[in-house]
Specification:
Porin, 16-stranded antiparallel beta barrel, mainly beta, disordered C terminus, 2 helices
């Protein structure tokens, strides 16, 4: 049972309306001088040696806005005795790349990458369904293949059926429900891992998702991505790596409008994020991140089609076993005339009853 509180407050040279666009994530700060409070409860229950129930529930509260709570994940996980096969059934984060699988409270930065907010919306890509992960060399964990099938609707399926009435690239989304197995959200991920030498580990993977979108009667979205993670730990007995470097590249092809629609077009988005976090001193970590996003098609002047760059740097300091603070600076640059550029400083407090990451659950 893990309980985590995250409180964030900061200031920016951008106004409130612009901050809401620059910071598109539901769980990241986007208001000047007003704190954002997040509380996550993550229980896990081992029903039998090979069957586990996992959940993650987050409550969000911000000054001057209504509080809200959501079930991020709630699923049953069954694992074979040799750990080669793992099956999940329920609601879970879509196994796309590395960032989408990471719970917000386990991240090394106060906000989500720009390209993820553009492709996956304010929330992470998730939904009800089932997945199977096959690891042909479980003991050495040298590689795995994951296939998932999920419901493509709801606010957590931004690039797919999403929510009726919303807009993507100027196209209003209609009410559309899957008409069969071919109109579900399918995702496949392949990941390989290999140890370069003592203390160094390299992992790389490829992901692809395909599902219907609600801009037409027979329209679909495809998202592909590649990721790389390198870690270095000179002390094999150490609890944390001395250096973690992660990079991810994503591309979306969004078919907007049916063939008989005069506004029919292919909307494309692409972007990347690369970040490095290192141990600067005992209990102190330094992080740096560079990211970009760009798109083609859609309505002229749409902020979501603008070219975006962001450079971030932060310092995280542990105040004890369960408490840490983080100070982060962001420099945002866009080619949109109303967004321009912005400098922001954020302060974050985190209190957790458990050390470690939910990422291992996936």
């Amino acid at each position: 049972m893990n309980l985590t509180y995250i409180g964030t407050v900061g200031v920016s040279s951008a106004g409130e309306d612009i901050l809401g666009t620059l910071h598109g994530g539901e769980h990241e700060p986007n208001r000047n001088g007003l704190p954002l409070h997040l509380l996550t409860l993550a229980p896990g229950f081992r029903i039998t040696p090979g069957l586990t129930a996992v959940a993650s529930i987050m409550a969000r509260s911000g000054s001057g806005e209504p509080s809200a709570a959501e079930v991020e994940e709630a699923y049953l996980a069954a694992e074979a005795d040799d750990r080669r096969l793992r099956i999940r059934v329920g609601r879970f984060f879509t196994p796309f790349g590395r960032v989408n699988l990471q719970h917000f409270e386990d991240g090394d930065f106060v906000d989500k990458p720009v390209i993820h907010a553009r492709l996956f919306g304010p929330e992470q890509l998730s939904g009800f369904g089932a997945s199977a992960a096959w690891n042909p060399a479980a003991a050495g964990r040298r590689g795995s293949v994951v296939l998932s099938v999920q419901d493509p609707g709801g606010e957590t399926a931004h690039s797919f059926l999403s929510t009726p009435g919303e807009e993507i690239a100027g196209h209003e989304l209609a009410a559309r429900t899957p008409r069969g197995l071919s109109e579900l959200l399918y995702t496949v991920r392949w990941q390989s891992a290999g140890q370069a030498d003592a203390g160094k580990d390299i992992q790389f993977g490829f992901s692809a998702s395909r599902g219907p979108n609600a801009s037409g009667r027979d329209t679909f979205t495809e998202i592909v991505g590649a990721d790389l993670a390198v870690s270095w730990n000179p002390d094999a007995a150490g609890r944390e790596n001395a250096l973690n470097w992660r990079s991810e590249v994503l591309h979306r092809r969004y078919t907007a409008g049916d063939p008989d629609d005069p506004a029919r077009e292919i909307v494309r988005d692409r972007g990347f994020v690369t970040e490095a976090v290192c141990n600067a001193a005992p209990g102190m970590r330094l992080g740096a991140r560079l990211e970009a996003a760009a798109g083609s098609g859609g309505s002229a002047g749409d902020p979501e089609r603008a070219k975006r760059w962001r450079l971030s740097g932060n310092l995280t300091r542990a105040l004890g076993k369960f408490t840490s603070v983080r100070l982060q600076f962001n420099r945002d640059v866009t080619d949109h005339p109303s967004l321009g550029s912005a400098n922001s400083v954020w302060f974050q407090l985190k209190v957790s009853t458990e050390r470690g990451s939910h990422e291992s659950r996936h």
